[in-house]
């Protein structure tokens, strides 16, 4: 999964993309919401993207 406009922490690593395990796997990310607006959060696998695995993350100051 990729979050535009931000970097986030996964464990000790700082990233903007993270691999989520298959079969309803989960990953917890922590990010500092310091860039208000609308940002795409999506899967880089085109099949998943076409199937709707994308959301807009929106927040305001």
From TrEMBL:
Residues 13-58 form the Plastocyanin-like domain. It comes from the Archaea. One of its GO terms (molecular function) is oxidoreductase activity. Gene3D superfamilies: Cupredoxins - blue copper proteins. InterPro entries: Cu-oxidase_C (IPR011706), Cu_oxidase_CS (IPR033138), Cu_oxidase_Cu_BS (IPR002355), Cupredoxin (IPR008972). Keywords: Metal-binding. Pfam families: Cu-oxidase_2. Coiled coil: none annotated. This is Multicopper oxidase.
């Amino acid at each position: 999964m990729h979050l535009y406009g931000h970097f986030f922490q996964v464990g000790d690593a700082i990233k903007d993309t993270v691999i989520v395990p298959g079969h309803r796997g989960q990953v917890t990310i922590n990010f500092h919401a310091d860039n208000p607006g609308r940002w795409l959060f999506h899967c880089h696998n085109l099949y998943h993207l076409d199937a709707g695995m994308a959301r807009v993350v929106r927040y305001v100051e």
